[in-house]
Amino acid sequence: MRSENHNINIFKEVISPGESKEVNFDVANLHTSSPVNIPIIVERSKKPGPTVLFTAGIHGDEVNGVEIIRQLIAKGINKPKCGTIICMPVINVFGFINLKREFPDGRDLNRVFPGSPNGSLAGRVAYKLVKEVVPHADLVIDFHTGGSGRFNAPQLRYSKEDKTLDTLAQVFGAPFVLYSKNLSKSFRATCKKLDVPLLLFEGGKSFHIDEMVTNSGVNGSKRILKHLGMLKTVFKSTKPKQDCLFISDSKWIRAKYSGMFKASIAIGTHVKKDDIIGNITDPYGKFNFFVRAKNSGYIINVNESPIVYQGDALFHISTKIKK
């Protein structure tokens, strides 16, 4: 981690050590000509130290991540003891306004990085984020949630090859780490190419704020800041209730039949092979199919949709834990 104590420049705004500033990321105008800005909240200590960037809302329907960063700001956790903390609670502000995952042009922001200055709207936002903000960061923590109807246990994701992130993941203290490859043109893959370490936090589901997930994200962020010497002493950083489990392999259990679905196992639970973990029924009381675990492992995602179709993903279960 770098330890810098000089002025930084974001979108032509100069932020000096010891200064607090809200920088406007001028995205574009609405079709009504109203301007749309993404607020970037920058808090700097007079003491030199690393720069941590907190981001959320890359997908506009993932409000739980927005809530985590909102709490970091509202509680003053983002005011560092040393170094700099940059918070971007809502990157896809267009999607957030409409509670949609994508940009108005239908593009997934997390599939257009590093973007282009002359490309689509989503591509231009990605380009400006990568050029103006990311270069200042020594560490990025990016908050996401599960897809619509699918609830993720709090977990961190990064490539198995990023061994340097294992220590930070243990410090963060989420219940699980799920090793996963960097997807092409994702924010995570772009940061990797720029040699900026990124921890991707997944928890909960879209269109939903969950207290357990929010607490995991906030407490993990405090532990990271304390580890880096950036957390003010007024804030307590508690140890995680359980050791972080590193999942090196996992698979989905899919619906064998269409029907009404109900899970009977709590998220994060360890199950044994052939345990009943849910059931699929028909609306007429004539059919009841029990969903069983195909292997022993931890349930890290549960489909909470009441209606499923044949082939739908029901449970994400670990198959191999790193020792």
TrEMBL record:
It holds the Pfam family AstE_AspA_cat. The lineage of its organism: Bacteria, Pseudomonadati, Bacteroidota, Flavobacteriia, Flavobacteriales. InterPro entries: AstE_AspA_cat (IPR055438), N-alpha-Ac-DABA-like (IPR043795), N-alpha-Ac-DABA_deacetylase (IPR053138). Residues 48-228 form the Succinylglutamate desuccinylase/Aspartoacylase catalytic domain. This is Succinylglutamate desuccinylase/aspartoacylase family protein. Keywords: Hydrolase, Metal-binding, Zinc. Its cofactor is Zn(2+).
